[in-house]
Amino acid sequence: MDWEQLELNPRIIAAVRKANFRSAKDILCFSGPDLQRLTNLSKTDVQRLHHAVAAALRKSSPVTALQLIQGECPALEPGHRLSFACPILDGLMRGGLPLRGITELAGESAAGKTQFCLQLCLSVQYPQDNGGLNSGAAYICTEDSFPIKRLRQLISQQPRLRPDLPPALIHGKHFSDNIYIEHAADLEALQACVSQRVPVLLKRGLVKLVVVDSVAALFRSEFQADEAIKRSRHLLAFSSTLHHLSHTYGAPVLCVNQVTDVVDGPNPGRCDYGLVGSKVLPALGMAWANQVMVRLMLRRLAGSVKLDSRSSAPRKLEVVFAPHLPRASCLCGVWEEGVRGIPDDGSELQPQSCS
């Protein structure tokens, strides 16, 4: 940056150059007292210097809460969420997935995590008025092959899952054409995918949802027990890329995570995030947990719940932590048409007619 571009007194600019500062970004790395010592400027001049550099480097103007509420910043899509296509699930999440940040869905094998991912890949394609983002999804597989048969089944059952929508809207969608599938066999391929190919799809507006299924598989298999620091560095680089994509394009990122067994006995260094008595905890430890904005836990319970004489094993979806949500949970089940919440009163779900 050319120092003359800053709205500052030439005297201040001369002092900065004399102190051998090469770029404006370097100014923000020093405290006020340090800058006073290096430049021999007064406290007031240093404050002016800090403000001028910050204003020049800021990519966008600050936004107030009032502007968000009044809808004066449509690019930020205030209050909008990506719907789960179920009123009960959306009620738990206050509308669905937030558009910015990483949402983690953790759970044991066969809990139904992939079912949620597939349902969101279809929901994102609807217009905003119907809870979607009017775009596609990028689905990154790191474990099993993509469940294409289940996806086709969900597509065929969309009229049953979404009876509130006009049939013409549903049948006019080419759902499978708007889901871009990537397979990453190792960490190098995964990082290349999220840093090279996915940004192209987001920039072109082809996708507005990024799914990683799962984030734990590669990080658990490619590092030994004594390589925790190395693994943490790779995790931070990976999560930083995801955060950048999400905040730049307003696209929610959903990461599936595995769980690890809790070893009996006291462990003062372990954080259970309030999951007291749980036999499993999300994998990858604190290094990954600190990068997640919303953590959800999905558990498969014993017994069954019926819908139109069809049975499903009940699941419990729990909000472990989130900046905008209380600790809460709801029951749900997986049927042919997708994931649907179970009413709190325990009544049997009403069947939905297929238009």
- Report the sheet with the most strands, covering strand number, pairing sense and barrel closure: 9 strands, mixed
What CATH architecture of the largest domain do you see? 3-Layer(aba) Sandwich
Low-confidence stretches: 346-355
User: What is the alpha-carbon Rg in Å?
Assistant: 24 Å
The portion of residues assigned to helices is 25-40%
Q: So what's the CATH class of the largest domain? A: Alpha Beta
- Average per-residue pLDDT, rounded, comes to 86
Question: What would the principal axes of the Cα set say about the shape?
Answer: elongated
Write the SSE topology.
Layout: H1 10-18, H2 24-27, H3 32-39, H4 43-57, H5 65-69, E1 81-82, H6 87-92, E2 97-98, E3 102-107, H7 113-123, E4 136-141, H8 148-156, H9 158-161, H10 167-171, E5 179-183, H11 187-203, E6 207-213, H12 216-221, H13 228-249, E7 253-257, E8 259-261, E9 280-282, H14 285-289, E10 294-300, E11 305-307, E12 310-312, E13 315-321, E14 328-335, E15 338-342
Parallel strand pairs: 3-7, 3-10, 4-5, 4-6, 6-7
Antiparallel strand pairs: 1-2, 8-9, 10-13, 11-12, 13-14, 14-15
Quick structural summary:
With 355 residues, the protein is an alpha/beta fold.
Descriptive keywords:
Rossmann fold, disordered C terminus, 355 residues, DNA polymerase, domain 1, 9-stranded mixed β-sheet, two-stranded antiparallel sheet, 14 helices, alpha/beta, elongated
What does this protein structure show overall?
By secondary structure, the chain is α/β, with parallel strands linked by helices. It has two domains: 3-57, DNA polymerase, domain 1; 83-342, P-loop containing nucleotide triphosphate hydrolases (Rossmann fold). It is 35% helix and 20% strand. It contains 14 helices and 15 strands. The strands form four sheets. A nine-stranded mixed beta sheet has the order 5-4-6-7-3-10-13-14-15. Strands 1-2 form a two-stranded antiparallel sheet. A two-stranded antiparallel ribbon has the order 8-9. Helix 11 (187-203) runs parallel beside helix 13. It starts with 9 loop residues before the first helix and ends in a 13-residue tail after the last strand. Residues 346-355 have low confidence and may be disordered.
